[in-house]
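Practice problem: predict the structure.
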Amino acid sequence: MEQTTRKLQMLILKTVRIWCINHQPNPMFDIENKGLGDVVEIAIPLQIPSEPHIPVNRIAHSEGAILVDLAVYEEGISRVRHAYGPIDFDPLSDRDPIIMAQDAQSLDSKRAHGYAHIFRQHHLVYAKYHSLAAILGYRINRIVTDWFVNTLDVLDRRLISLGSQGVFFG
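Answer:
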């Protein structure tokens, strides 16, 4: 029974948000250097250090650190948290720096712009992933595709909910 549970955990990807300092040229290089390549499938940078409209909390994090969403196998979450440390907010919450950094007046508009920004970043990586697979002629792991689809669906539902409440974020 325990072995079955362990196998199932390896089949479930969860989103884990981290602050990543060594992200050049791609956060996956730092992830692999930390020995986490076996539990992290995808790294999606949510910020570019030169983007002035998405500031980094320089008090709690080193200059140049960016927020990155990771697709992590469930059993590897504690290893990732140990390697990168905790974050001091819940992703997609009103305290999420991506949400709070949006140039909008109301909190609902900040949420909408933030969700749209995160959606675009995830969709960009998803499209690149599929293009690369098509060019190189390999099949994308179903677990990875499901993670992308589920993550984009969550963001899409949040955007639809805000839009149905009359929040404009065009």
